[in-house]
Write a structure and sequence with these properties.
Elements: E1 5-9, H1 16-29, E2 38-42, H2 48-58, E3 63-66, H3 83-88, E4 93-96, H4 99-105, H5 109-121, E5 125-130, H6 134-138, H7 142-153, E6 166-169, H8 183-201, H9 203-208, E7 210-214, H10 222-226, E8 233-236, H11 243-253
Parallel strand pairs: 1-2, 1-8, 2-3, 3-4, 4-5, 5-6, 6-7, 7-8
Helix pairs in contact: 1-2, 1-11, 7-8
The structure holds phosphoenolpyruvate.
Phosphoenolpyruvate binds near residues 236 and 237.
Length: about 250
């Protein structure tokens, strides 16, 4: 049985002090635990250490994720963060292939695939994002487009523990826009992702991989997505920036 997951992507928000404060607020909101739901917060890289300390000091029931990684181990890659650096500050998860990284920074499926491999080699769980633009959706090619991304992003991955590889389906037109896909829209694509994973990895592995929905998910709509057969949780941007709204989404998933 797949454990639900609610993950917060803080994007480029929250200074170090603000991040620590948000993590403390969330630890307080979730002090009674998160039941059977895995909760993850993904602060900016420079906030990771501070949030890790809050998690440790308060025994907070959430994991720590980064928002990006580079696929080389070390060297002359100015501005990048190596996987062992994430490991050293206690990151358990890392988002890869977010549409903002693909769109603004030219991240390709090949990069996403290399990042997944290097993270898994370091014991960090990738949260690998995929999703189509409005143009692709309006052309009716969204399923085909996302299935192609999944094939490229997972090429050659060896998944021995399916709970340690997570996919987030995020239609680009629904991110930060207030326009949500319907729960049926999410199930259509996420169901196709699951079927593709069955073809690639076999049913047992595919059935253990969590697939999240992301795109203007909020406390008042998250439950609708979670009712769908293949939707295992949410990757949350805007609504993860306040402890009470993010905690409400976790509680809706419990
Ligand atoms: C995201 O950036 O992953 C996201 C889903 O953002 P929002 O919830 O703000 O649409």
């Amino acid at each position: 049985m797949r454990k639900r997951m609610i993950a917060g992507n803080w994007k480029m928000n929250k200074t170090y002090g603000e991040g620590v404060e948000l993590a403390q607020g969330l630890a307080d909101e979730l002090k009674d635990g998160t039941g059977d739901v895995d909760v993850v917060v993904c602060p900016p890289a420079v906030d990771l250490k501070g949030v890790a300390e809050v998690i440790e000091q308060t025994q907070a029931p959430f994991g720590l994720g980064a928002q990006n990684v580079y696929y080389e181990e070390s060297g002359a890659y100015t501005g990048e963060t190596a996987p062992n650096m994430l490991e050293a500050v206690g990151a358990d998860y890392c988002i890869i292939g977010h549409s903002e990284r693909r769109g603004y920074f030219g991240e390709t499926d090949e990069d996403v695939n290399k990042k997944a491999k290097v993270l898994m080699a370091h014991g960090i769980v990738p949260i690998s994002c995929c999703g189509e633009s409005l143009e692709v959706r309006e052309a009716g090619k969204h399923v085909e487009f996302v299935v192609d991304q999944i094939k490229k992003d997972t090429e050659g991955l060896e998944i021995t523990d399916p709970s340690k590889y997570v996919i987030a389906y995020e239609p680009i037109w629904a991110i930060g826009t207030g326009k949500t896909a319907t729960a049926d829209d999410a199930q259509e694509v996420i169901g196709a992702i699951r079927a593709t994973l069955v073809e690639i990895f076999g049913k047992e592995t595919a059935d253990g991989i969590r697939i999240l929905y992301g795109g203007s998910a909020k406390p008042n709509n998250v439950a609708g997505f979670l009712e769908k057969e293949d939707v295992d949780g949410a990757l949350v941007g805007g609504a993860s920036l306040k402890a009470d709204s993010f905690a409400a989404m976790v509680k809706a998933a419990m």
